[in-house]
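Bit of a strange request maybe. I'm writing a small parser for structure token strings and I need a real example to test against, not something I typed by hand. Could someone generate the tokens for this chain?
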Amino acid sequence: MESNFYAFWLSCFTRIPLPKLWKCIQDVGGPEQFYKSKESEWKEFTQAECDYIHHMKQRKDILKQWRELQEKNYRFVSYYNNEYPEKLKELTDAPFGIFYEGREDWAELISKSPMVAMVGARACTQFGSQFAYGMAQELGRHGVVIVSGLATGIDGAGHRGCLDGGGFTLGVLGSGIDQIYPKEHYGLFMEMKKRGGILSEYPPGTKPLSLLFPRRNRIISALADFVLVIEAREKSGSLITVDFALEQGKDVGAVPGRPCDTVSSGCNRLLQQGAKCILSPEDVLEELSERFYIKNPEKNVPLVKTDLGLAPKEKMVYSCLRLEPKFIDEILCQLELPIWEGIQILTELELKGVIRQEPHQYYYRIM
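Reply from user aminoacidic:
Good idea to test on real output. This should exercise your parser:
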């Protein structure tokens, strides 16, 4: 039997805590030795757990699944494989293997590049989504890998922004990598398989069960060098990722929100407790620059999508705006245009639906 099969077999275990399983495997000498061992050597386990191991040894469908895996494009990377991320090996409950689909150079990218976990509310505001998109787009341009959970809201915005910035983004699933969840992310899912990566500790065919999602958050935080929270409520699932990150000794940052906004109450609480206050991509890059070489993209290239259909002067004005609101005087001072013309173009951009005005003449991008 191929040596990787034994790690695959262990990846199918669901009823024994991973730290406990790892302890016995290390005692007997490895996954293959554990597969061939006898109950007399399983000192850590209860009788119910021993019965479960016997059951797993007798499951012929696992061998069938292994053979089917070889026939498909899914890559299984055992804990003992050189491609297995070193950051995951630091976990006491490290997966015995991970399933991956996406870019071929993924292992090198996540071993050498700075990685930021971008997490937040599924039911985020439009501003939060656009802020996450712009943040990830700029970080992607600087060679930062964005890792998240491919959920709706902040996760999806971060993945899209990184791809549009020309960066590499990694989605960690709470299901098998053949399960597209949520369904509305079909297009993003397929695009990430081409230009990014999809990763899971669960075998293909594993359904997206609610109990699996909190567990996958430990992988997101373990892979990251910095965890960034954008719009999280007091009891947000994103804070589970923060808890894992703090246990793993990772730095955490949060984007502040207005005190009355419940969607940002979790972020504001994190800031009270000492999280880094993040207002711009530069804040994140500064945190990373002490440990990593930060790629310097071509300067003076405005982050304007080519499909917006803007005239040259409209692009000039649009490039002065960001996802956080900016006062009109600050915008007009950046433009080499008469004040009346700058105001006219702002109005035209607002009518085209690419920017929006808040009270008191503050403008921000929405595309």
